What we know:
elongated, Alpha-Beta Plaits
Amino acid sequence: xxxxxxxxxxxxxxxxxxxxxxxxxxxxxxxxxxxxxxxxxxxxxxxxxxxxxxxxxxxxxxxxxxxxxxxxxxxxxxxxxxxxxxxxxxxxxxxxxxxxxxxxxxxxxxxxxxxxxxxxxxxxxxxxxxxxxxxxxxxxxxxxxxxxxxxxxxxxxxxxxxxxxxxxxxxxxxxxxxxxxxxxxxxxxxxxxxxxxxxxxxxxxxxxxxxxxxxxxxxxxxxxxxxxxxxxxxxxxxxxxxxxxxxxxxxxxxxxxxxxxxxxxxxxxxxxxxxxxxxxxxxxxxxxxxxxxxxx
Length: 296
């Protein structure tokens, strides 16, 4: 019964660990490009990359904490921990946004041509990491759908913003180099930084909104309540009385408790089979659900 959750956690940890390794290498590459170049957009890229690496590292540490506590009784806390991590990721993205805007403002008031070997280092790294980040976006979104995990959804948004930033920075560096003869090309760097800031703003707002809502315990959505009633109706001939239905959502997790009454003469094996089948059916139809069938 426990093999599926373990596989789920293993998949999430593996995906996040890969992102941490890739992000750490990206930080070193962008630092090298920054030290060897004079470019406002490369400075903004380094600040953004460093903060994104911190966000992914935090996500990895959170998933490891959940894995270590996988056999303990704190189901409600796991959902809160994932959503709290998503909230911290969004706050880091807002911090990244502030750094980029401040850097772009300075570059607009003190325009200068980009220069240095670091520009070409950055061009190569942007191409490479655009491919890597796109792959991580697809992987994180797939796992987020399969596991109903807000943490992985937050990572997908983060990787998407990174991939967009890679494309815009590459375009910015290319145009700044090719159009250096024109005076207005001095403003390509800061303008590209502001476009990146807008993409990060939308991603951060979405993550912040979802995470703050999920941090609050709330009643189950109507569509899932109807799903429970339909499942009970399909199995109405297998129990004698419906005593009570309790349901709540905590973060990404849905908890459902159903108390059923059975006929005294009904065999125990038949009661157990009916309860198990109803539980499996509901957990299959309601993503991220934990169903308990109590026998009165």
